[in-house]
Amino acid sequence: MIDKVIPYGRQNITQDDINVVIASLQSDYLTQGPQILEFEQAFARYVGSKYAVAVSNGTAALHLSTLALDLKDGDKVITTPITFAASANCVRYCGGEVVFSDIDPNTYLLDITKVKELLKSVPKGTYKGIIPVDFAGRAVDLEAYRELADQYGLWIIEDACHAPGGFFMDNNNSIQNCGNSNFADLAIFSFHPVKHIACGEGGMITTNDKVLYKKLLALRTHGITKNEVEYHNSMNFANGVDSDTIDTYPGWYMEMQTLGFNYRLTDFQAALGISQLKRADEGLLKRRDIASVYNKAFIGKPYIKGQSGIIEGHAYHLYIIEVEDRLGLYNYLRENNIFAQIHYIPCHLMPYYKAFGWKEGDMPNSEEYYKRCISLPMFPTLTIEDQNFVIDKIDFYYGRR
User: Fold this and answer.
1) What tens digit of pLDDT does each residue of 342-379 get?
2) Is 6-223+259-278 CATH 3.60.15.10?
3) Whether 132 contacts 140, CB under 8 Å
4) Distance between CA atoms of residues 90 and 128, nearest Å
5) Architecture of domain 280-399
6) What residue spans define the domains of the chain?
7) Region for 243 from its dihedrals, namely left if φ exceeds 0, alpha if ψ lies in -120 to 50, beta otherwise
8) DSSP string, 319-356
9) pTM (2 decimals)?
10) Which of 132, 178, 199, 345 could form a disulfide with 269 if both were Cys (CB 3.0 to 4.6 A apart)?
């Protein structure tokens, strides 16, 4: 048995990362400083969007996105059950209704055919939006979803938390980066430690829509603006004087114009994000190399019922295999200090969502996938020796049975 622990995911913090964080901590700003805008601009360039808004975490990014799109109480939104709960919860934060639709068992992504059937079964206007998820790092074909959404007047939020650097090929055979917002109204990312880019916590919203961008900036900071051209109150009121001679707003003045939140990212987190972003492509290549080794090791094995495989544009946040006796394998790997993980328990079977009437049998593909899925160690610093140890243990477990 190997002595060290092999987790399913792990951050990669270098000395350069540490140095930039120290420099940020020693600067004049811990928050609301220049590192935020620098990170936003660098990230927007990386994914190919016009605008990016840094926030405190991926959940905040989802929440602000639904608010910016004016989701209201009772509005219905479609999403996948195979995702982290936040992808659905953001709808509930606004009082909306989550409607789950099943996955494609081959891609593990929200099945557009089933979404079409769902939309056709009710009058137009029943649904407000769709939240497709680039699950495990595999890019959703957002061009197809955009065409469908336009038919029904829907907005799209792309949950790209698993897929910075991922892409799909559009109908013109051009690369479409996850999060570039060419087809989605908004896209969101997470900078949790196991993600491609780690800030400790943190998130990003990308968009090409200037109106949505401005709304997000205000919603991120209590609904407050310090932009003079947007002020509603008069200069006289702002100055606290009764005079017609006032011709400028005082430097202290600001206005709360909507109900927002404190969802800001700190400067030292942004500094870490900037440093991590510089190595994003390097980490992505390593993830794809690791995926290739897994794919070669397991392809054609009788105990493998499905696996992530080698897919063009896949960002490989996760590498998933489907197996029989998943619980037995999970426990055996843990006994050998291999801490594989399960992604995910279907959201519609969480007690919270079952209270809305969802039940076993509603999403058969998702439920069958959940019975067999297990996420193997996948992170850029995973050594080939450790990866081979993982593969050998899986082979041994099924070979002895």
Assistant:
1) 999 999 999 999 999 999 999 999 999 999 999 999 99
2) no
3) yes
4) 14
5) Alpha-Beta Complex (3.90)
6) 6-223+259-278, 224-256, 280-399
7) beta
8) EEEEESSHHHHHHHHHHTTEE-B-----GGGSHHHHTT
9) 0.97
10) 199
